[in-house]
Design goal:
Largest sheet: 9 strands, mixed
Order of helices and strands: EEHEHEHEHEHEHEHEHHHHHHHHH
Distance between the termini: 54 Å
Strand order of the largest sheet: 1-9-8-7-6-5-2-3-4
Strand content: 5-15%
Radius of gyration: 22 Å
């Protein structure tokens, strides 16, 4: 049974007298740094020389250091840069600062689970992973709420790593809604699978296929976009609010009947078998190896796929519709 922790289980004083070094000041970095500071934690920000985000971090009131300087100063070092960049930054600027008693933290288990980063003995290794983008982590914190977090301890060198994890998660607001205990393995593999098979790869491919089917049948692209793309958020919001049952309660009986009848024709045994293959590639490291190789070779295929996706018809139709809807809202406000 999954174990959840809340504010009553956390003691922020565990971070008293300690310095948290936030490495990176992007989506997650700015949110972690600001939330921790607002919770009374001493924070420094570590960035590479010339990083554009350094101006913003300084404007937000933080001491900005090089990564190596921040790593030396930090008692807890939270790495919040892209997965594919972490190993090189760790090897060059963080590893040398790790001495017994320090804690190395991550918001995603990729580099620890696939053994790209192997911390030295005596250093705690933990994970605090908010289940939401950084701007939501920040905005929810400011509103008095919080984004739930996954948390794990890979190495409890000092014997108090879990208390530190709970304190950090509370400091960024996660304990307000719940902290789920997990492992680096579980978080990494479920996160990658969810992104690829459902949340990103699966959902976008499904919307694209629905759009294409309607357009190929002669329907207006704008109608196809509204039905297969735009309305997705409305449905997902209902699911997030109350689960599948609440979504089905909120839609028409006709839509609910079609849900039961047709969903299984779209997600077939063949689809499920392909999902199992995707999961296996994540579990055995094949996907991780492919992604690292892609970056080592200059990301040519990745950039080509990104360019092709941005230039697709569905993106052009969507951009045009969003612009028109923005004008309608603007006119109504005037």
């Amino acid at each position: 049974m999954a174990k959840m922790y809340y504010e009553k289980d956390c003691n922020l004083k565990k971070l008293d007298g300690k310095t948290v070094a936030i490495i990176g000041y992007g989506s997650q970095g700015h949110a972690h740094a600001q939330n921790l500071r607002d919770s009374g934690v001493k924070v420094v920000v570590g960035l590479y020389d010339g990083a554009p985000s350094a101006i913003r971090a300084r404007a937000d009131g933080f001491e900005v250091l090089t990564v190596s300087e921040a790593a030396k100063k930090g008692d807890l070092i939270m790495i919040l840069i892209n997965d594919e960049k972490q190993k090189n930054v760790y090897d060059r600027e963080i590893a040398g600062a790790l001495i017994p008693g320090k804690t190395l933290a991550f918001a995603h288990g990729f580099n620890i689970h696939y053994k790209r980063i192997i911390p030295p003995d005596g250093v705690g290794v933990v994970m605090i992973a908010p289940k939401g983008p950084g701007h939501t982590v920040r905005s929810q914190f400011l509103s008095g709420d919080g984004v739930p977090c996954l948390a794990a301890v890979e190495c409890d060198a000092a014997g108090d790593a879990w208390e530190t994890v709970l304190a950090y998660a509370a400091g960024i607001g996660g304990a307000r809604t719940g902290i789920l205990e997990t492992t680096f393995k579980e978080e990494t593999e479920t996160d990658l699978f969810g992104e690829q098979a459902v949340l990103c790869g699966g959902v976008t491919a499904l919307m694209q296929a629905g759009f294409d089917t309607l357009v190929e049948a002669g329907y207006q692209p704008e109608s196809a976009y509204f039905e297969c793309v735009h309305e997705m958020k409305l449905i997902i919001d209902l699911v997030a609010q109350g689960g599948f049952s609440f979504m089905r309660y909120s839609i028409s009986d006709t839509a609910e009947y079609g849900d039961y009848l047709t969903g299984r024709r779209i997600i077939t045994d063949e689809t499920r078998n392909e999902m199992r293959k995707v999961l296996l590639e994540i579990q055995n490291g094949a996907f991780a190896d492919k992604w690292i190789k892609e970056n080592d070779l200059g990301r040519t295929n990745f950039e080509r796929m990104r360019k092709d996706a941005k230039s697709s018809i569905v993106e052009k139709v969507g951009a045009d519709l969003r612009e028109k809807m923005t004008r309608i809202r603007t006119d109504a406000d005037e």
